[in-house]
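To whoever picks this up:

The parser on our side crashed when reading a file containing two proteins. I've narrowed it down to the boundary between the first structure block and the second sequence. Both blocks are reproduced below exactly, byte for byte. First block:
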Amino acid sequence: MRLFSQAQYRFIEKRRGAYFVSGTVIAMGIATMFLNVASLGSWLNYGVDFLGGSLIQVRFEQQVTAGELRDALGGSEAPPITQFGSENEFVIRAPLSEDASITEVAEQIESDVTANLPNSGVEVVRTELVGAKVGGELQTKALLAVLLSFLLTLVYIAVRFEFRFGLAAVIATAHDILITLGFLAAFRTEISLPTVAAILTILGYSLNDTIVVFDRVRENMKAKGGRKRDPIELVNASINETLPRTVLTSGTTLAVLTALLVLGGAVIRDFTIVLILGVVIGTYSSIFVASPALIEIQNRWGVADPSRKKKERPRPATV
């Protein structure tokens, strides 16, 4: 049994409604970022990795899990905790307030752990200060990583397909990033290095889904009679033909990510939420943003038609 084997949905004709939805969501996200500047002092809720703070390494004499330590430090409000070294050693990344030194933060953490995990034998092994300068460098490098991915995407698809395909893919990818950042700003999700990794993963997923559709568009263009087909009809047919693959891939990916969200715990919660959001947005954009963008680019700028100069040459395909 093949899902959507006879699908004939008119996706491209719905593009204006998709433009309105996407534009509204992006505008709301940008407005939320401006509100965050007024309330938080920054566009997004950057974590210790970007703003600087303290790294506190603790060791336990008794068996203690990361979940137990997180509960002892406030549960969902606890700072990021990662296992380091042996099973009973952890690194806590805690922000620093203006009126507290790193020593005071370490002492407070030790006090909270002792009170909530008695007889655990907690010991502060190391304390380090991460300066804001390092955080600023990480912000710059994260931005450069995203911009470089845009450039490489444009070059890769322009070489494999045509420049207009690459431009449409970059538009769809930028759309995905803007909506994702808007949601992160609206819910004030802490931006950490794993969050940046999730955003870069979204770029790859969205691009892969878009290339699948574009590859079918190219195949249909080269098929017999494909050059004479209406561009909108050709793109619609290409999306419908790849729809089973799109739905199954997105569905199975979301199933795994949902399991991670439910069973993975607080450590990877934000990372998983960003990935789930990215899969949904990436699937939507490959159908309602990338493909319509390809049509719009052709309608506005088109390509030269050598058949007008030399009648013996076949007319190039347009989409």
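<<boundary where parser fails>>
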Amino acid sequence: MSSNPEPLHSADSTDPSTTSLSLSLRRGLFLWQPNALMQPRPWLQLCAAAALLVYAFFGISLETVPEKAAMLANLLGLAILAIYGGPVHGFSLRRSAIVWLAVAAIAMAFISWSASWLMLPQWAESSFKVHRVTIWFAMIPVAAILGGRQRNVHLLWGCALFGLLLSPWISGGGLAEWQRGLAGERIDFGLHNAQHAAMLFGTAALGIAAFFPRIIASGHRLLALAWLALLAICIAAVVASQTRGVWAGFIAGALTLATIRVMELRNRYRRRTIFAGAVATAACTLAIGYIALGDIVSQRLAAERETLHLLQQGQLEKVPDTTSAGVRLHTWREALNWIAEHPLVGWGGNGRSLIFDHSTNLPESIKQNFGHLHNSYLDLLANYGLLGLALLVALVYWLVSRCLHGYRSGHLCAGDFTFCLSFTVFFAVINLFESYLFYDSGHLVMALVGGGILTRIWRARRSTAHAENAG
């Protein structure tokens, strides 16, 4: 199977305007390649790329800078798509299925809001709001800015990784916080809280691991050692954050990544020793990690032993509401009762808040200290019902299926494909324990990871259309 980083067919390879664009961009951003999907004005592409890189670097480690950069990048990316995303070789980016899904998200939010006014007007939001779900589609303007180029995607992800690694010194306590974390204290580097720090570093670790075989194949030993050091730092941050839901998701994502790689190697070389070697390496890595950081893991898992014991006995009423697991169990049970009343369209965009504001069953300590359900899927069902969940499933299915098709056709490299699938599993699991889909950290990784994959999908689709027309 080919893993050629760029398709053979490029609509912009001989266009004089593209040469000018390339020169302009290279003067401003050095490694940034010209847009292969569209031909926007050089200044427009330059401004959009700069805003996107600023957003990726600072992420959620700062407040105003990434927010303004994200707004500018989204605005310019949508402008590029709207003006230059028309039909080429019979394929229009503006009419891509994911764009129609974004339109469907607006319609879904409107239906839920209208239903809330008809059912309980005193609890309905005063105005129609779509940002809670349309923000998931920020990957669309990101993909438009990236222009289908693999180098641009990896430059964006590398910029985000570099910013994340510096976040302890940007928003956190620097080296002193690292020392506290390795000593057993729960740390978050100032990234909202420990759960969000764990999610960001877990995403980074999966991305680093996905491209590690490519680094090994390059033959640069120092680069490979540096890559391993980055992986170790990210995994250490995940452990030091002491977030069990992310631990579970990371294990699931890592197993997905390892399974894909082992299958690829066995198909390529047909040697059983490869499988045995991969298993032995994984076991040794886990053993070394547990010896180094096992006490942190053991103490964190033992903290909820009483809660798990009560749950096994079916005594949910006796579960304390002061532990993280207890808070989740009480809110989840109450949320399911509310969701059952309006399962199709939910309670409107503020549905999850209504549960905390008007529930008569939740303890006052939970109602006063929390405003979300610590589960993205329950939050989504409470707000938008099964319509909202169907939209999310459709988005994930389209992205993963198109990614698989692009990989099989040779338009996506193995690293991109492996990262996409392992991140999808990781993100699906961790959203069972926290509402990342409704926080800036979740929006960040969806935009950057999803945008990188989407731009390659669009490039593959446009190359296929070009080949079909040429044939």
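After patching the parser it read the second block fine. The first helix runs from residue 16 to 29. The chain has one domain: 16-305+374-470.
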